[in-house]
Amino acid sequence: MAGKSDDRSTRTRPAVLGDVAALAGVSAMTVSRVLNAPDRVRAETRERVLAAVRELDYWPNSAARQLVTGRSGVLGVISIDTTLYGPASTLYCIEQTARLSGYSVSIASLSLLSRRSIEEAVHRLRSQSVDGVVILAPHESAADGLRHLPPDLPVVAVDAGEDIPVPVVTVDQRAGAEHATRHLLGLGHETVRHLGGPVNWLDANYRVDGWQGVLEEHDRPVHEPLRGDWSPRSGYELGRQLAADPTVTAVFVGNDQMALGMLRALREAGRRVPEDVSVVGFDDVPESAYYSPPLTTVRQDFGEVGRHAFHLLLDRMAGKGEEARRLVEPELVVRESTAPPPR
Amino acid sequence: MAGKSDDRSTRTRPAVLGDVAALAGVSAMTVSRVLNAPDRVRAETRERVLAAVRELDYWPNSAARQLVTGRSGVLGVISIDTTLYGPASTLYCIEQTARLSGYSVSIASLSLLSRRSIEEAVHRLRSQSVDGVVILAPHESAADGLRHLPPDLPVVAVDAGEDIPVPVVTVDQRAGAEHATRHLLGLGHETVRHLGGPVNWLDANYRVDGWQGVLEEHDRPVHEPLRGDWSPRSGYELGRQLAADPTVTAVFVGNDQMALGMLRALREAGRRVPEDVSVVGFDDVPESAYYSPPLTTVRQDFGEVGRHAFHLLLDRMAGKGEEARRLVEPELVVRESTAPPPR
DNA sequence: CCCCATGCCGATAACGCTAACAGGAGGGAA
DNA sequence: TTCCCTCCTGTTAGCGTTATCGGCATGGGG
């Protein structure tokens, strides 16, 4: 165990706390303090320890630390399909924010959100001793799972419904739909059609509510909304139905991808956008500014959602979180796919 | 510590191995064996233990297990910007595949790939005792980091360059570019222009090579490729340059998003696609079939890449991996954005 | 009858770290 | 001087699990 002959070039086993202590000529406890509460150690000693840490390329073993502290510094994120733009962006932001606060994140992607699948994912993460979990739960079907979580696990939900016993952060979908619908009515359209997302998605339903509410408030006819599956394909197929109806002059589409399909259906039917039909999307994906024409849409700030979720979780882990519902305001981005109706 | 009065409804502290042992009337070691090597325990005893496990809702503490075994059942994935379609899809597939084999995955998203940032991420993951790491390393600048990894950590790289001391799995970018270019030449175009990705992206450079190779092979003029940043915006801006040049009849674009911007630039310049100019993209994002017109593009099977990466890593962790370079074949998807040149 | 192999299980000692307390040195107030 | 308080560091005892070894049956062959 003597100094130079024992450094990282000759030793195969990674250095442990004791090695650092020996090299620095202090006790293990002092090394631990240097790492966890530096001010409680005299500056001179601290420097010596840090030098030894560098010399040996020492990295603390988190399993050991976790075993004794009960904390792991790992957060779990449960989500469906992180291939979609929204969840992917939220996840990305949670990870970035968490890292700045010293947390890592472990993911569990599900193919469906049911009580069973959520419980299973929670157990998987929990057996890794995560300190807390964010659940991206945009489906109706997640509610049941969210109501039966282990009571001692800090959890925050994103895009979940109401009457959930955990804090929720979500974009105000209803307000977004209202902005879109008001914008179209404000341009002079008699009424607005809606091509919504799947019925089991909460976001989709809130958007339907917002849209319908504005129409009723203005005494405009409310046509049964069409329901797609978020894919451009469904936007195209359902778009063909709307395109064939000459009374349609304005459509509010549940997301940008379906709006893309819709634009194509309208073009194929010989209806110009925005001269004949106005289209508004939702999300503001990076591509939407380059659709033909550039899409008027409702921007969701997923980054903000991720940051809020993380901070709520932090509060929750500190025990001081209330079961708030935090709404992030969406913003209407007006581009070239909307105009007054043809006369 | 007496049976029924100590079950999960009255106890707050989660059950540990010892609780299960006490309830089942066996030693801790026997419980451990039931969990890790069931055949080494008599069936009758095993059943009694399992009943106790269920009764107490016992979940093993992974930190303790990990501390003694040195294995964690967690894999790390290092990546830049998991918001992009490619990395997001690959990550998703790795996670799905890993889960089926009992592994969890922990992520580390970087904002740039440098030797320093990679080392830092590796250490972060490693201090969580991950059993292995997949690095999504599509940048030139990652090579330096990949050459200086800790020798005892199993690593597999995705989309990395050559001369890397770890196994690499990647789509054959060069072949993809060749398919695209040959397709355009085959339609009768005199030559093909290229709008590529950023110069520090390996994929982008391999695509340039493939494109250039085919042109040279056919003795066609090779114009200096333009370089965008993958965004629709850059596709649009550089597209305007190409659109203004009447000699341009065919363009191979480095990804679908830039191709989208390009399509818009061409439309604005009054050049029809595919009658006046043919465009081929790369990636086959779900939207590309609904662009105007639907985009001919090169499909990359990210799922396949993810699965291969995981299995190579598994081999690597078992110590039997060679430093292979595994190529996944891309596929040309012909849609409506390509046609013979105008006469 | 003994001997050894085999199957099953338990006792003990780690793994690497930190919580909790203990103790010595130094300084200021009584 | 004495006492106490503060600042710094060390000692001890775990955290919950598994590796390792050893022991007690049982059984079959010599």
Explain what the structure shows.
The structure is a homodimer of 343-residue chains. With 343 residues, chain A is of the alpha/beta class. The first copy, chain A, has three domains: 2-60, lambda repressor-like DNA-binding domains (434 Repressor (Amino-terminal Domain)); 72-166 and 303-318, Rossmann fold (3-Layer(aba) Sandwich), CATH 3.40.50.2300; 173-300, Response regulator (Rossmann fold, 3-Layer(aba) Sandwich). Chain A contains twelve helices and twelve strands. Chain A has helices spanning 17-24, 28-36, 43-56, 62-69, 85-100, 115-127, 142-146, 173-186, 202-217, 232-243, 256-268, 302-317, and strands at 74-80, 104-110, 132-136, 155-158, 168-171, 193-196, 226-227, 250-253, 278-280, 297-299, 325-328, 331-333. The longest helix of chain A is centred in the first third of the chain and has 16 residues, at 85-100. The model of chain A is unreliable at 1-10 (pLDDT under 50). Chains A and B meet through helix 4, helix 5, strand 2, helix 6 and helix 10 of A and helix 4, helix 5, strand 2, helix 6 and helix 10 of B. The structure holds a DNA duplex (30 and 30 nucleotides).
